[in-house]
Amino acid sequence: MTTGVRNILFIMIDQLRWDYLSCYGAKSLQTPHVDALAARGVRFTRAYAQGTSCGNSRASFYTGRHVRSHGATWNDIPFGVDQWTLGEYMHERGLQTVLMGKTHMRPDSNGLVRLGLDPGEGLGFSLAECGFVLGERDDGLHPEGPLGYYSARPPRYNDYLRSHGFTGRNPWLEWANAGEDEQCRIVSGFYIENAHRPARVPAEHSETAYMTGRAMEFIDAAGDTPWCLHLSYIKPHWPLIAPAPYHRLYGPEDVPPALRSEIERTAPHPLLRGFMNHRVSQTFTRDEVRARAIPTYMGLVRQIDDEIGRLMAYLHEKRRFDDTLIVLTADHGDYLGDHWLGEKDLFHDASVKLPLIVVDPSSASDAARGSACDALVGAIDLIPTFIETLGGTPPRHRLEGLSLQPWLHGKVPSSWREAVFSECDYARLPVAKAMGLDALEARMTMAFDGRWKYIHCLGFAPMLYDLKDDPDELRDLGRVASYASIRERMKDLMIDWAAGLRNRTAIDDKEMTELTGKSLQQGILIGFWSEDDVPAEMRPRPLNAPN
Amino acid sequence: MTTGVRNILFIMIDQLRWDYLSCYGAKSLQTPHVDALAARGVRFTRAYAQGTSCGNSRASFYTGRHVRSHGATWNDIPFGVDQWTLGEYMHERGLQTVLMGKTHMRPDSNGLVRLGLDPGEGLGFSLAECGFVLGERDDGLHPEGPLGYYSARPPRYNDYLRSHGFTGRNPWLEWANAGEDEQCRIVSGFYIENAHRPARVPAEHSETAYMTGRAMEFIDAAGDTPWCLHLSYIKPHWPLIAPAPYHRLYGPEDVPPALRSEIERTAPHPLLRGFMNHRVSQTFTRDEVRARAIPTYMGLVRQIDDEIGRLMAYLHEKRRFDDTLIVLTADHGDYLGDHWLGEKDLFHDASVKLPLIVVDPSSASDAARGSACDALVGAIDLIPTFIETLGGTPPRHRLEGLSLQPWLHGKVPSSWREAVFSECDYARLPVAKAMGLDALEARMTMAFDGRWKYIHCLGFAPMLYDLKDDPDELRDLGRVASYASIRERMKDLMIDWAAGLRNRTAIDDKEMTELTGKSLQQGILIGFWSEDDVPAEMRPRPLNAPN
């Protein structure tokens, strides 16, 4: 079906919890512009990340494949050169594919060297950067420590800040992600005690506004050339510091109570206990931390909402509203102290569940506008959705996701997945060392069927949550004898899933089908007693016939 | 440990059943030269193929990875360019890596084109041919049918035959794999009714002798340059026709009784029934077929044994006996009518179990000479064994096998795998069509723990065999209620196995470890309330310090 869609605007918001948007139920925090997108499109209420940190989750967005299949198992772990990426799929459909912001992708340098490809140009560059060939990559992490800078290169944003008078060695750190204390000393946004201070740049020069502006510049320059624009906001990811007035829109009274209970600490799963022992978990367990950090997190989300409002107005002005598919999502959430945890990586909804809003401007979607969809969906579904929206057929020998188009058009597909899956390789987290696990043993896999969330933990007992009777996921049933049959059923789903992953990626279904049955007519005669048993049209020429 | 081994001789015998060697218990068929290898080395009694047809099994031998990981799921399905292969690992250790015979590898042409590599030369050729850079590839399948030749190119062996007076359009088919009937008509070796006739070439010009000769030529030419030689025999794979005298060494009286029972046909697993319906299964179920085919199969094995004797004498003469590791194995077996089945693909021992003999010439192996080892081992273990034997450390972030060196040195490693796994993608077999399965649904996975053989069948009930109480695998317990707890335990092994496969292949454990903990000292300060909480040596410079 042709939809008239020519462009894709794929907005990702780093570390945005699904429930910190008013259309998903946030209370004090209002996000009217995101809500307006939801009113124009479909809001998915059970969307899940395929990985729970930036690198692995994004790799699933950018390849349409599970972590087990692409192999970028955590931050800074590359996937191999063989993986097709968003940019490559979009290029096939004739779209200029542009990044503005973060991908967190580390190129497979070893693989590129092995193949004699230069990551700095042409094909090598495209493979090294998810197929994005234009735009501005900025992963939003530019601090410096005793071992030097975290990022190899300073961001273009530093030059931008300097050109606006925010000078110094590293304006990203000293202005955009810093505040000033009562003694007018510059203090770092990395320290949570400073989260209530305004950033040292005005909102219009913050990272969020800057990237929005870069996206608008691109849209303007592109004119009528079709594009896929990945606008990838860095906030509300830490450092938690917001420019005025967003630093003071919310206060401790707006902070939702922590989702946690004493039961969770009584006899937790050993891995859960290990994660609770992480410094960030201990920190976010303190009420003063939540009271200081979360209002700023909310302010940063609110700023993004305002910038999305600005961007939508611009799209409208440029007459791109009716031919652009718009997606708004996140790479994962943030515990923010829920379940006695900080950061992400585990599989409670606070971490693994995603906001996902898709606006299909075509008339085929009119019936679905403003609706909520509770189908089990995920990061891997975006590339197939984009391809189908642009009139193509998603190559399912590589892509593990499903096109969301039926849901976007208000239809119920005849079959859909029974469960969603997500994975975590925690080898690089302190818990692995504390548990004595080596680099290949720290693996968890989640299966969620809409009610039961089963988590396979290599080397440990599983976890199990019943989201119907225990929606806040406070009671781990993984070792409760009476739930054995539920666990067995979830294991069956997990084995089937693993067996059905797309490993035969080198040839598509068409090539596969063409091969089949051909060999018999090329003389490969298996299991025939005599020539008489071979159908006449399949028979090779007699051996003693003249050449 | 340095072993003094400089060369690797890796002999593969196509479609050789593990129990058609006298050292593995064959009765009439005597294989003294293979037995002599077993007497010099270690004979593995529980070696298993990771795939059950030529292409997928060999891809596991050539990559050291399971089918699920390399993706060459059946014959003519390529694995991707990212996969490292035997030749590449051996090249790293300074060995010239040479193929004489069959690989059945189809190059990833799409992947090579995408990366701008020419499969005809240099890196592209190496990637297209498992890293073999010298030698002679001959997959041993050169028939012709109404759609033309099966192989793209005629074999060099055709030229060889012509130079010895065996002329014609396709001497492989007309001489080496043909016989003559009573009316002196040339008849094809593809038809089993002709299996008792002598081939039209003398033994010394048969494929088996030819490839042995080619191997000897290479060994002679190589001199003292270290090498890895993959001598890959085509026989006893069909066409089943043997040169004199091997065509008449065995008769119907030498054919072992078929391993099968009426129980198997009473209410078989639906997939087993589907495979029983294949033409080749129906054919090999007939006693006259077994009586005609199996003596020739035995004769072909006996010929290989003689050629191995010739090769060993040559190695000895060339003083290569003490610095060459020798491996003899097969890619899979052949049902030959057992279980009412023909060919391979399923997971009874007749199909999935391998002969595997490894001769380590170093003195460290003296204690183990002539011993049998019942450890669970497989195709994926060869590359790690080769690397360790040559003094290297197998890169376990890619390789899924384990080095056999402890067993070769008569030691029991402190830990070993609990089960072996094998896979089958039967999408291209008639059973898939008969079952209405599409190109991605036809998947089976076997787990064998030394007693229980559990087979997960995507979309169907599992199969289960108890090899202790039912060593002939005649009774499928997959749907017998009282074995539910066994099945659950095997499922747990399968989930653990799948979760532990090597997907993070782009960086090794060392790079992984170096990354860990570094970010904190590059200023990534997560979960700190204030600077006071950061250990002094990790602290970034104060922000208001002079540059």
Q: How large is the count of helical segments of chain A? A: 19
Oligomeric status of the shown chains? Answer: homodimer
Distance between the termini of chain A: 53 Å
Largest interface: A-B, 112 and 112 residues
Q: Supply Rg of chain A.
A: 25 Å
Would you kindly provide a written description of the structure presented here, covering whatever features stand out?
The structure is a homodimer of 547-residue chains. The first copy, chain A, contains 19 helices and 17 strands. Chain A has helices spanning 32-40, 54-63, 67-70, 86-92, 109-114, 122-128, 156-163, 171-176, 207-222, 263-266, 270-276, 279-285, 287-317, 349-352, 382-389, 405-408, 430-434, 484-499, 509-515, and strands spanning 7-13, 42-48, 96-101, 134-137, 144-145, 148-149, 178-180, 186-188, 227-233, 324-330, 353-359, 371-373, 377-378, 420-425, 443-448, 452-457, 463-466. The model of chain A has no long low-confidence stretch (mean pLDDT 96). Chains A and B meet through helix 3, strand 5, strand 6, strand 8 and helix 12 of A and helix 3, strand 5, strand 6, strand 8 and helix 12 of B.
Short overview:
Two copies of one chain form a homodimer. With 547 residues, the first copy, chain A, is of the alpha/beta class.
Write the layout of secondary structure elements.
2 copies of one chain form a homodimer.
Chain A (H helix, E strand, L loop, with lengths): L6 E7 L18 H9 L1 E7 L5 H10 L3 H4 L15 H7 L3 E6 L7 H6 L7 H7 L5 E4 L6 E2 L2 E2 L6 H8 L7 H6 L1 E3 L5 E3 L18 H16 L4 E7 L29 H4 L3 H7 L2 H7 L1 H31 L6 E7 L18 H4 E7 L11 E3 L3 E2 L3 H8 L15 H4 L11 E6 L4 H5 L8 E6 L3 E6 L5 E4 L17 H16 L9 H7 L32
Parallel strand pairs in A: 1-9, 1-10, 2-12, 2-13, 3-4, 3-9
Antiparallel strand pairs in A: 2-11, 5-6, 7-8, 10-11, 14-15, 15-16, 16-17
